[in-house]
Specification:
The chain is mostly helical. The protein has one domain. It is built from 12 helices and 2 strands, in the order H-H-H-H-E-E-H-H-H-H-H-H-H-H. The chain has a two-stranded antiparallel ribbon. Helix 5 crosses helix 10. The longest helix has 28 residues. The protein is globular. It starts with a helix and ends in a 5-residue tail after the last helix. The model has no long low-confidence stretch (mean pLDDT 91).
């Protein structure tokens, strides 16, 4: 618990104090946000706001995690380091995407194929390594079973496991990216899901099968360290949100959104709650489905279901204030998290 508190405190301090430094640095270099012409009219005023703020979240999370372990002399784990690798790797892909946008002064960065290739490479490396490094109880960071509250069913094998991990990594990183359309929206929603994983990691530690075999124990390799990772990233998001809340003084860019989506996917895979993340991150799922429905409807019928996708922009065009949308979507994200945690908690009780 001490490591969680120290990691979170350091991460929060670095993000809270480091973000204004990044704002000044990026503004001086002209790293300002480009706005799509077809976007909501109110977004024109955001043109030039510093972007790539996701670098602050990544750096603060890494410093917080390592500082917590060094301060308390608590051993780092393979599971925690792999999730941080996934976050940093996807953040690097997003950084390249953001940099190309700024360098070429256009709203399109990496081509979709190149972006997916970058995500796929990081995802494959993560998937392969997650099946290695067994501990003394032969537990690896991930398993070749699908999971909801725990692993279930038969093993899907290494090939299908890699495909499944790729689907989760690309799906959630792009889902957070789609949600990152209004000031503070994606940051606040991610904080809520990460808070859930701090609770889940601690609960799994206290009901670990390696401590006491019981009908509802958890076969998770490093539950405490995964809670530390979640706490460090959550605190970094808190510090960043201070400056990213409406009206935002900095945007996270693809650097941040891809990295945060990767953290969520990595935590779900390593805590054996892969399908539960569909509920915990329900807001991201709903916003992604709004894009799928919009594109599918237009291609099949030539008509749009929403005034604009993703969903948050539909409500902007209906006349809702940006802060109203953000706060209400945070409330929806909170309800999804509460539902997911309730299911997780009830699922622990003996049948």
């Amino acid at each position: 618990m001490k490591t969680i508190l120290v990691s979170a405190a350091v991460s929060l301090a670095v993000a809270l104090l480091g973000t204004p430094v990044a704002i000044r640095l990026f503004a001086r270099r002209g790293y300002g946000q480009l706005i799509r012409e077809e976007g909501p009219a109110g977004h024109a005023s955001k043109r030039g706001t510093p972007t790539m703020g996701g670098t602050v979240i990544i750096v603060a999370s890494l410093i917080g995690y390592f500082a917590g372990h060094l301060t308390t002399d608590d051993a780092m784990s393979v599971s925690g380091l792999l999730v941080l690798f996934l976050m940093t790797g996807l953040g690097a892909v997003g950084f390249v995407d953001d940099f190309i946008k700024l360098y070429k002064q256009r709203s399109l960065g990496l081509r979709s194929g190149a972006k997916l290739t970058g995500q796929a490479i990081i995802g494959v490396v993560f998937a392969i390594l997650a099946l290695r490094f067994p501990d003394g109880y032969d537990l690896t960071p991930a398993s070749m079973h699908l999971s909801f509250l725990v692993d279930f069913g038969i093993s899907i094998g290494p090939v299908f496991f890699v495909v499944w991990v790729l689907a989760m990594v690309t799906g959630y990183s792009n889902a957070v990216n789609l949600t990152d359309g209004l000031d503070g929206l994606a940051t606040g929603a991610t904080i809520l899901v990460l808070a859930a994983y701090v609770i889940i990691g601690n609960w799994q530690l206290r009901n670990d099968c390696t401590n006491a075999l019981a009908p509802n124990c958890y076969d998770v390799r490093d539950p405490l360290d995964l809670a530390i990772v979640a706490a460090a990233v959550m605190a970094a998001c808190f510090g960043f949100l201070w400056w990213n809340a409406p009206p935002a003084r900095i945007f996270m860019g693809d650097t941040g959104s891809l990295a945060l989506g990767g953290v969520l996917a990595g935590l779900a895979i390593t805590t054996r709650t892969e399908l539960l993340l569909l509920i915990l991150g329900g807001l991201f799922v709903v916003i992604t489905l709004s894009v799928v429905v919009q594109v599918g409807s237009y291609k099949l019928t030539g008509r749009r279901v929403l005034r604009m996708a993703p969903l948050q922009h539909h409500f902007e065009l209906l006349g809702w204030a940006e802060t109203t949308i953000v706060v209400r979507f945070w409330l929806i994200a909170g309800m999804f998290v509460a539902l997911g945690l309730g299911i997780f908690y009830v699922g622990w009780f003996p049948k």
